[in-house]
């Protein structure tokens, strides 16, 4: 998790005022179902680890309020290897990558969640994206939301510019936050209801990692973890890595993905980040 956080922090390095860096004050590892009573499994789909993400996040928030650390943390975040899912027109959709309530740091809804299968690190983008929602950032191109008092919104930052708060992953801007997102964080940071962002409740922190995902996994492991239900999935050695992308290949299909942070992309070139991963696009509760 510290490696995943380090990868996310690279994306937050573009913030100047206020400077934004994620600091871990505690980690809870769940080892058995009894440890996570808030998980809402999809009946009949347990073997595929599908969970209802809206209901799970709401129950997670309620459950975490019984913990003392909830009130001394700016954000309490759930990272899961399960398949975040929802029913849409009678069909189970599971392309969702994350969910967070907009502008809720320091509040009674200070939670978010995202997917990341262990040792893949494919979730760095979604993790950073959802935390930005907690800090107030809308999707680029969206206006202010009534949920957040004094919210400015991001209508003046086009979606097609392809920054991290859109899904238009086309160039290096996908690893950076737009001006609008940075402005919104500054806006909330200066408001009294977000004063916890200017305070430090604990001096206890988890030691930061100095390692990035590309040094912690292999290309084939990456493919196998992301597409764990596709038999024979592996990185195509004949394609290799081109333009910081690889082919994840199985018997009857393949997927082209961006490689994880710090993967060699050829001569004197190293990747900065993420894979092209689907993310929920419809507003829910706080809008995100």
TrEMBL record:
Keyword Metal-binding: yes
Residue numbers binding Zn(2+): 129, 133, 139
One Pfam family here: Reprolysin_5
Organism domain of life: Eukaryota
SUPFAM superfamilies per UniProt: Metalloproteases ('zincins'), catalytic domain
Keywords (A to Z) from UniProt: Hydrolase, Metal-binding, Metalloprotease, Protease, Zinc
One term of GO molecular function: metalloendopeptidase activity
Residues annotated as the enzyme's active site: 130
GO biological process: membrane protein ectodomain proteolysis
Protein name: Putative secreted metalloprotease
């Amino acid at each position: 998790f510290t490696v995943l956080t380090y990868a996310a922090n690279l994306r937050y390095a573009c913030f100047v005022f206020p400077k934004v860096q994620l600091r871990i004050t505690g980690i809870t590892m769940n080892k058995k179902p009894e440890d996570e009573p808030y998980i809402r499994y999809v009946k009949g789909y347990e073997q595929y680890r599908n969970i209802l993400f809206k209901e799970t996040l709401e129950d997670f928030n309620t459950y975490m309020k019984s913990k003392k650390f909830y009130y001394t943390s700016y954000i309490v975040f759930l990272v899961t290897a399960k398949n975040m899912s929802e029913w849409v027109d009678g069909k189970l959709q599971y392309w969702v990558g994350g969910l967070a309530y907009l502008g809720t740091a320091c509040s009674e809804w200070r939670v978010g969640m995202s997917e990341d299968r262990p040792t893949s690190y494919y979730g760095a983008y979604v993790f950073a994206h959802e935390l930005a929602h907690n800090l107030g950032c809308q999707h680029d191109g969206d206006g202010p939301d009534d949920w957040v008092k004094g919210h400015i919104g991001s209508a003046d930052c086009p979606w097609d510019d392809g920054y991290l708060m859109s899904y238009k992953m086309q160039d290096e801007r996908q690893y950076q936050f737009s001006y609008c997102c940075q402005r919104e964080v500054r806006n909330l940071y200066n408001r009294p209801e977000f004063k916890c962002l200017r305070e430090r409740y604990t001096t206890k922190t988890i030691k930061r990692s100095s390692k990035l995902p590309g040094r912690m996994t292999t290309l084939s492991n990456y493919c196998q973890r992301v597409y764990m239900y596709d038999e024979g999935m592996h990185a195509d050695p004949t394609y290799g890595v081109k333009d910081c992308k690889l082919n994840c290949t199985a018997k009857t299909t393949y997927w082209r993905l961006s490689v994880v942070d710090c993967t060699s992309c050829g001569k004197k070139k190293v990747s900065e980040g993420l894979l092209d991963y689907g993310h929920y696009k419809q507003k829910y509760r706080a809008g995100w």
